[in-house]
Each structure stands twice: as C-alpha cells, then as structure tokens.
Amino acid sequence: MSASAKWAVGGVIAGGAAAGLLGAGSSALALYFARRVITPVRVRDENQEVLAVIRAADGLQVILAATEDTTVEGTYGLIFDGGRGHARIGRILSYSPAERTVLREVEAVYSGDLTTARRGYWSGASYPDPASIGLPVEDVEVDVEGGVAPAWLVRAPAPSDIWAIMVHGRGASRQECLRALRPAQVLGMTSLVISYRNDGLAPSAPDGRYGLGSTEWRDVEAAITFAVANGAREVVLFGWSMGGAICLQTADLSRHHHLIRAMVLDAPVIDWVNVLAHHAQLNRIPSAVGRYGQLMMGHRLGRRLTGLAAPVDLKSMDWVSRAVELRTPTLILHSVDDEYVPYGPSATIAEKNPEMVTFESFQDARHTKEWNVDPERWEGLVTAWLRRQLAPRANPGSRPRKSVPSGTDANMTGASGPE
Q: Most buried among 180, 282, 394, 399, using CB within 10 Å?
C-alpha cells in the first residue's frame, strides 16, 4: 500500500472513531438531559447567599446577594436551614449594583433562626401553611395509587358545593398554592390543597419518575373523588407550572372532567417540547441533542435508559396544537419575563381558542411569581373572572316566553318562541 493510501485509510478510521466518540458523547448528554427533567430533586439547592441580618427599629432587615430573583420587587419566601426555616421577605430598601447586594425588609419569620442563616433558596411560597394567612385548616388524606396523599382542607365561610383543587408545580410544594386561598374564600369555595406522586409527601410513583402530567393527573382525579364524596358538586382546578400541565391532562382524561367548571393556570406548561427546547438552550445543549433527549423520554425503548415505567407522550400534551380541543373555560396568568417556562404558548392557545381561554400577561415576574409581584392584580383578575364563570347558568328552557296579545297569530307577527 502506498504512503498516500495508508494516510487515507488512517484518516477514515480516525474520522469514524471521532464520529463514534461524538455520537456516544451526544447520547450520554441527551440521556443526562432527559433524566434531569423526569427525576425528582429531593433536596433543593440553597443557592441564595444571606450576607447579614439587621435588627432595625421597625423590625428585621436582611442583606442578600443580588440576583435576578432578589432584585425584583414583591413579597417572597426565603427557605433556609434545609427547609426547616421559612421567612417572608418584603420590599427592597436599597440596592447596590457595585457591591452586588440588596437590602430587603423581613416581614415575618415563621420558623428557624434567620440570624444564623448563611444560605437559603428564593421561593414564591411566601407563607408556610394556611394558618399563617389566618385561615382555619384541616389535615386530610386523599386515597391515591400506592397509599394516601396528605392535603390541606380549607373550608369556605359557608357550606359550599364548588371546591377549588390546587396543584403545585414540578419540584415545588403545596405551599406554592396558598396564594390562591383568598380569592377562593371570597368566592365561597372550599379549597383542597393537594400533594401528588413524587413531591415528597404523597407516595412516590413505582418508577420514581415524573410523568410531566401524563401520570400525575390520576392523583388530581383522586382529589376530585374525595371532594365529591365530601359534598362537592363541581370543582375549579388551579395549577402552577407543571401543575398546569397536570390540570390540562385531568380535564382531558379524567372520568370527572364534566365536573370541572373552570381552570386557573399560573405560568403553565402548555407545550413540553417548547419548554424542553428552551431548557436545552439555557444549558447550552445543542438542539439536536435536546431533541434526542425528548425522543428518549417518548420512546418505548428509551424508557430502559431513563427509568420510566412507560414512555411520556409529549405530543399529547402539546396544547398549542390541540387548542381547539380544550373545552373547559381557562384563565392563564403568565409573565412575559418568565425565565423558566416561556409565555409564548400561553398567549398562542388563547389566540387559537378565545372562546375558552383568557390570557393575562404580567411584567417583571420570574417563574410562577406573578402573584408575588402584584398580588392585588392577580387576586382581582382571578376573582373577577371566576365570578363570571361561577355565575348561575341560564337554563334556556326556563326563560319566560314573550306574551302575545290575545287573538294574534304569533307566526304572522314574527314571533319565534323563546329567545
């Protein structure tokens, strides 16, 4: 073999090996991406620095490292000490871009010693439980697959046959839902704030993996069953982030779908393909690798690598494509500055199905923190919209006929029966 031929053969072999290595690397990255999406995180990363706590004349103040979260006005939760500490953090008192610090008011410390905290995580859950809002609460259990799921039951001021069932998002807790309790109370609804598989309170799924809504909806169906057994005639579903995807699946698949009067969705996942592509970009994962990760989640063979008991059908949860199939009145509240779940699909589904979907945009709020930035507007929109949805339905058959003068032929006068 000539020297040039040897070099040519060597180049082909080297190129094939490199392609194989790149292919293996892409597959490994795609698998890592897929597993991160569907694997619950049991311990939250306390990535927020707490630099100092100051005792001022009017209460506590806290100096925090300035981040994209802590420099947005509003009221938030600061969870610290491995989840054992919970403080409610209020308005910004000062902000130093040069020092990269922000001074904020501490509105309340519900548990733990904030003065000794050095790290924590920022949360939209301002309150730890319904009692901290001043609402009586009962601890109840909902029968679900694999056992019972704890829930908070907050009864309406007067007996109610319309219940609100509240569904938190991926990696969050039922504390996230407490922001909707006041509107529910104003509207006379009993609230059931639930837990569901893999959230650390309810029994884990057999495979220990998120179904991204494709499996979790069964726990919401169980919650509706509980509500009906305890006097509910109809329900309103509230969902945040992945909780919104779960509510959409419930309205689509549950045997109780006819009992769902309306849905209120905050920063919901309307289209998982869009969200996963966004996260691949955020994590600088090539788009082709991100799509490969999605394929792994949805393919019957890929589940052996991901650990899923069954494939996740992302297309069935694409409500942009299925917009006209949504027949439950739905209010969507979503910030245009959401860094985690892009608001575009929320706006698009409302454009495609304006009869059923109302979209309200917010500014500045990070993911699922629309209420935190502007609670008055959030509660006002939800209350006004739901009041219209919950108004007594007119029964056309019960409307009085227009009176026709005696001796007059209705057909000759143009009368055509009830309006």
A: 180
Q: What are phi and psi of 129, to 5 degrees?
A: -165, 165
Structure token pair of residue 406: 């005696």
Closest among 249, 288, 289 to 265, alpha carbons compared: 249
Q: DSSP secondary-structure letter at 400? A: P
- Only one residue has tokens 């049991």, namely 42
Amino acid at 147: G
Strands 162-167 and 190-194: parallel
d(CA 367, CA 379): 17
76 neighbors 124 (Cβ within 8 angstroms): yes
Note if the pTM is more than 0.85.
yes
Q: Which two tokens stand for residue 323?
A: 């917009």
Alpha carbons 235 and 256: distance in angstroms, whole number: 10
Q: Are 280 and 287 in contact (CB under 8 A)?
A: yes
CA distances from 80 to 40, 48, 122, 354, 380 (A): 20, 9, 9, 42, 31
How far is Cα 138 from Cα 166, in angstroms, rounded to an integer? 15
